[in-house]
Specification:
single chain, Rossmann fold, disordered C terminus
């Protein structure tokens, strides 16, 4: 349920929004950017009924004080349940079949898929230029939801072959997400070899990880360690030597992140959590919803403000 709004409000559609650092961070950011806006969380369990998604989209579409929304976890399901309520979708939303941002312009409700941009900015922040050309490493993406779609779409667009992995292996515990990911990849012209693995056994994920060449990347895009307990691998799983590890979460139990950190020195790992992803995800949406430009200097100011408010258990 939503409560009546009294000020311009950005909605956050997620699973456990009250636990997110953005609830502390946004008021400070609103002050820095001069937005004069509030934030409101809207929680729904993963794979919620269509009515739950339509209710929040209807609220945003028709309430003049609802400025828009950032969507996590529900990006694909929300669009599938409420596509008819949108007046426009941006090209990335059409390609990826998801919306991570809702904005309003001239009375129109617009759906955006910002994740190809935000995942790309986050990827470039820690993946060395030319890494894949030097190492021949692969990407093993555990999870095939919206983040996997966005990341793979971004890397397929990179112009230099040395910046593109030769192989991208997507693993998911259900087949619909894998089929959706495959359909997106069929629309993209790329030399990346995509593989799709239907699996929910962490021991099998261990095997896939151990078969990777040195320099490969392993991504936790499952939501495990945040929205669901546990990790997609076991404590016995071995990360690739000189590999890159990307935990897309940065709050919750973060089992996968801790597993990687225990091997960091022995396996010479470069490890990234979801903090930069969090920052880019929110700032891209805020810029779109409020129709403003966030320069590098302003981004640095927002980063510093968020870092000062970040709690040990907070996050997106």
């Amino acid at each position: 349920m939503t409560t009546p709004l009294t000020r311009p409000t950005l909605y956050f559609v997620g699973v456990t929004t009250k636990q997110s650092s953005i609830m502390k961070v946004f008021p400070k950011w609103s002050e820095i950017l001069g937005l004069g806006a509030d934030i409101a969380g809207y929680d729904a369990p993963p794979n919620a009924p269509a009515e739950a998604y339509r209710a929040i989209v209807e609220q945003i579409k028709h309430d003049p004080l609802a400025t828009g929304a950032l969507v996590t976890t529900h990006k694909i399901n929300l669009l599938e349940a409420s596509r008819d309520l949108f007046d426009e979708l941006d090209p990335s939303a059409e390609l990826c079949g998801e919306v991570s941002c809702l904005s309003k312009r001239d009375g129109k409700l617009i759906g955006h898929a910002k994740d190809p941009i935000t995942s790309g900015l986050s990827w470039q922040a820690f993946v060395p230029q030319g890494h894949w050309g030097r190492t021949g490493g692969y990407v093993l993406c555990l999870g095939a939801g919206g983040s996997a779609i966005a990341i793979s779409a971004f890397i397929a667009s990179l112009p230099d072959a040395a910046d593109r992995p030769k192989k991208f292996i997507a693993v998911n515990r259900t087949t619909p997400n894998l089929e959706r990911l495959k359909r997106v990849h069929q629309k993209i012209k790329t030399d990346i070899a995509f593989e799709y693995v239907h699996n929910e056994d962490p021991l099998r994920n261990d095997e896939l990880m151990e078969q990777l060449p040195p320099g490969s990347m392993v991504i936790n895009a499952t939501g495990m360690g945040k929205d669901r307990p546990g990790s997609p691998i076991t404590d016995a799983g071995i990360f690739p030597e000189r590999g890159l590890v990307w935990e897309l979460n940065y709050r919750g139990e973060l089992d996968f992140l801790h597993q990687a950190r225990r091997q960091a020195q022995a396996r010479q790992l470069t490890i990234e959590d979801g903090w930069i992803y969090f920052l880019h995800g929110w700032t891209q949406v805020i810029a779109e919803v409020f129709d403003i430009t966030i320069s590098d200097e302003v981004f640095a100011t927002l980063d510093a403000a968020a870092a000062s408010l970040r709690s040990a258990g907070g996050g997106k």
